[in-house]
Amino acid sequence: MMTLQPQQIACQQVLQEDNSVFSIQWTDLPVELCGEMTPRRLLDAYIAEIKRMTLCLIQPEESSAGVDFLLFGRLPLICFLLPVVEAGGLTLRICGGLLVQKDQCDRGELFFQCETLENGAIRVSLRLSDYCPLLLGSQTPSVLRRWLYRLTQAAVHRLVTVRFLEVLYRRLGGKARRVERVRVSVVEGRRT
Is 164 exposed, middle or buried (0-12, 13-18, 19+ CB in 10 A)? Predict the structure, then answer.
């Protein structure tokens, strides 16, 4: 009888030196599960899963202007410009929203990547970088603000992204005995 291996999901979430957020999560999928997985398909699956996971409280909406994550279909939590295909992935650049510091709306991005590994597996990853959350207040947040961010928005982001990768694996036909989160270090920073 074949023993099912755990699905490993790599995670790192830190505040960088300038107190912007860097967060990355990835999992390696056997090529037979991925088929024609592309960064665009990964984005589409993410958008659908956000809507499902939040019971439609958060409704991602794509328009000719970009992609907005709307609370109750009205309040723009986070807004992105149109997706841009770049080296090995697809980038959504942050351009506003209630969860973004007003003076930092022109920085930050969400990057979707599908990378073929040497063993033939496909690494699917989501990376949030240079994001300046409103909860931190500024580039010099107090300890209280850092803890508030860590216990709320950072925890929700990590939970949603890890859950998305779990669901993606299972929907593609993967079977795992359990999910194992693995801490990785991609960039330096203070853990959130």
Answer: buried
Which three-class secondary structure string do you get for 18-86? Answer: CCCEEEEEEEEECHHHHCCCCHHHHHHHHHHHHHHHCCCCEEEEECCCEEEEEECCCEEEEEEECCEEE
What is the rounded CA–CA span in Å between residue 157 and residue 165?
Answer: 12
Residue 165 CB neighbour total at 10 angstroms: 26
Residue 69 tokens, joined: 């994550």
CA nearest 42: which of 124, 157, 108, 163?
Answer: 124
Is the pLDDT reported for residue 82 higher than 70? yes
Identify the band that residue 174 occupies on the pLDDT scale cut at 50, 70 and 90: confident
Tokens read off for 4: 């099912």
The pLDDT value given to residue 175: 85
Question: Going by DSSP bridges, is the β-strand pair 179-183/190-191 parallel, antiparallel, or unpaired?
Answer: unpaired
Region 53-69 average pLDDT:
94
Structure tokens at 6: 């755990």
